[in-house]
Each structure stands twice: as C-alpha cells, then as structure tokens.
From TrEMBL:
A Pfam family recorded for this sequence: Mrr_cat
Protein's GO biological process: DNA restriction-modification system
Naturally occurring in which organism (per UniProt): Dictyobacter kobayashii
Single annotated GO MF: restriction endodeoxyribonuclease activity
Protein name from the UniProt record: Restriction endonuclease type IV Mrr domain-containing protein
C-alpha cells in the first residue's frame, strides 16, 4: 500500500481497536498526533491521542519519547500502533511515561483483523482456510484516488525510521473527505454489515462514494455521518451504564428473531461451559456446539434441514465448525461489544463489564430462553 492509503487503513482500523469519536489528522512523516478519539474502557471514556507507524523494524525508545512529547498538555493517554514490534526500552518507557502510552504491535493488529474478518476471505479452494482479500486493501488505494485534487504524493518505499514522503506537512481533510468503509460503519453502529448492505441496495442508506473494481463495489461513508445515520435508522445508542449494557445483552440473547438456529445454540454451549472469569476455550465451544446439534438429530428433531453445514453435524470438520461459529453467531455478539474473541489464545469471553453485572439467575434464564428459542425454531420449521 502507498503511505497515504495505509493512513486511510489506519483511520478505518482504529474503530476496531476500541476508539470512538475518531478524528484523523493524518500528518505525513514522523512525529505528531495521527488521530485522536475516545477510548471506551468499560464505563469510562478516555480522550486519547494516536500515532501509527508502518515499520519493519522495532519501535525504539526515542519514538516513544517523541510521542510522549506530542501528547503532553493535550492527552493523558496515548495509543502507539506499529506494524512491527517494540524494543524492551520502548515498552518500558511506554509503561512508566506520563502521559501513559498503550501499545499495539503487528501481531495484535493481525489478531484484531482476523477477529473481525478484515482483509480475509474464505479460500475458494478450501473452505477451511482463509486467503488475503486483496480487494479489501485495494479499496483504500481507490479511496485515495477520490481526493486526488487534495492529496498529491509519490510512491513511497516501506522502510523504518525514514520519512515516507518528501513533504512532511500536514494535510487538512474536511469532514466530507474523511471516509470509512461500510464494514467499519457497521461496527461503529453495532449493526451487522450485511444488514447495512441490504439498506444500501434498497435505497434506505446512501453512501457518500462508491467505486467499482473487479465486479465488487466499495461503499464509503463520511465519518461525521455516523451519528446522523444512527438517528435516521432509529438505531440504539451505545449503552452508557453497566445496567443498560446488561439489559441490552439480555434482550438480545432472549430475542426470537432467528434466521438460523446458531445463536441460541452458541449461547447454550457458552453458558454451559463458562468459567468464573466469563471465558470459554473456542475448541470446547466447538465440541459443545456440535454435541447440541447431534442431540437434536438423535431425538428426531434436527435443528437444520437444508442450506446449512449443521444438517449433518457429525460430518463437519472442527475447523469448518469453528469458522461457522466465529463468522455467524459470535460475530453478532462481537459487533455489539457483548463478547470478545482472542484468536491467538483461543478464548471467547463475555465482555468484562457485562460479566461482572450478571447474576447467576440471569445466566440460568439465558440458558432457559435458549432452549425455548430452539423449541420455537423447530416448531416454526416443522
């Protein structure tokens, strides 16, 4: 990717890193604040400054020193994001510095992208493997071309500790020029992107720019339209209290709005296995998920009868079953910030701000409602 396109990617990615109310300043070259936003930490909202570095080599202590200097007097927290990693002295400085600096490295970026299926597609040759989605990254190059009158750059090499462009002056982007892609809009609104695409197709939602490539359309939206779109579509605001988070989760878990049986099955499997910390190993979740489908087949009430992997649950590989869970029922809980999935550790966890509020009787009620939803689903499709 070009340097400018990488900055567009970074601005889009920050939404998935937990920031809201993002404003991307996009300074070119070293130093300064690349973006600012609000870090959502449970019930707390922290103003935070961000710097993003496309490095091959590890970030060094002087990089953190310069960032701390840029933060001072403006932010009490900073987030440093790099495609590489950090030297021990850089991490030590980030930990003890005032303002404090959070760090995100390349492996963590990849983990977040895999969690939210950014830049990957199912391989056409093997349904159990993922391929890099080149069109996802090309969409940021196309985004750059939308503003060719404002953004003038040469091709930049991918190096560490050197300016990527000859000109290191800031480029002011008006709100209408700071765009995010449709999936990121969905994450910000806590709405399934597939639902947003349907609204785009039927004219309910109009993108600010559309580009075609290889038969695929890229839809872009102004970042400052997020809240107006939320109001226009009558979508729920992000809960502002722990009690509100819990109630929204319980309402969502109890809903009988089902196109497949996956959601209640995953909820039942999760809460049968959950430990004291609100965690379940994904491999254990896969086994219990399969066991529930097998049970219903054995009692003569199969949950799925057509167009689903789960018609024959014993014939589905563990890997394919894991992908189904992650991309369908779990994704909806991730979008709504009800659950977290650490792919590297193989752990699915209910969001800590929810887990600390749930009482035992409410967990039992979720299990009972999951059973009720499955009975309803079977009777509806009989």
């Amino acid at each position: 990717m070009s340097a400018r396109s990488f900055e567009f990617f970074a601005g889009d990615f920050l939404t998935y890193a937990g920031l809201e109310n993002i404003s991307v300043t996009r300074y070119v070259g070293d130093g300064g604040i690349d973006a600012r936003g609000t870090l959502m930490a449970g019930r707390f909202q922290l103003p935070i400054g961000v710097q993003v570095k496309r490095y091959r080599n590890n970030v060094q202590r002087p990089d953190i020193d310069r960032f701390v200097g840029a933060l001072s007097g403006h932010f009490s927290e900073g987030l440093f994001v790099t495609t590489a990693n950090y030297s021990p002295s850089a991490l030590q400085k980030a930990t003890i510095s005032v303002p404090h600096v959070l760090t995100l490295n390349g492996e963590q970026i990849v983990a977040l992208m895999l969690e939210h299926r950014l830049g990957v597609i199912t391989s056409p040759h093997n349904a159990e493997k993922l391929d890099v989605d080149g069109d996802y990254f090309a969409a940021f190059e196309r985004m750059k071309s939308l503003w060719s009158d404002h953004i003038n750059e040469s091709t930049a090499s991918y190096q560490a500790h050197v300016k990527e462009l000859a000109n290191d002056q800031p480029i002011d982007l008006n709100p209408g020029e700071d765009l995010i892609m449709l999936n990121t809009l969905g994450y910000a609104l806590r709405v399934d992107p597939a639902r947003l695409r349907r609204w785009v197709d039927d004219g309910t939602l109009t993108p600010d720019a559309v580009q075609q490539s290889g038969g695929r359309s890229s839809h872009y939206f102004r970042r400052d339209r997020i809240e107006p779109i939320r109001r226009m579509l009558h979508l729920e605001q992000r809960p502002e209290s722990s009690a509100a988070w819990k109630q929204e989760f319980l309402d969502f878990a109890r809903s009988k709005n089902l196109s497949k049986s996956y959601k209640p099955v995953m909820l039942k499997a999760f809460f049968l296995l959950v430990d004291r910390e609100g965690k379940v190993r994904i491999d254990d979740l896969v086994r219990e998920f399969r066991h529930i489908y097998v049970h219903y087949v054995e009692i003569g009430q199969p949950l799925e009868r057509s167009s689903s992997l789960m018609v024959q649950p014993l014939e589905v590989s563990d890997q394919a079953l894991k992908r189904l869970i992650v991309t369908h029922p779990l994704e909806r809980f991730l979008i709504k910030n009800f659950m977290e999935y650490d792919q590297e550790q193989g752990i699915v966890q209910i969001a800590p701000h929810l887990w600390q509020e749930l009482f035992h009787y409410e967990v039992m009620d979720v299990l009972e409602r999951a059973e009720e939803q499955l009975r309803y689903y079977v009777s509806r499709d009989s």
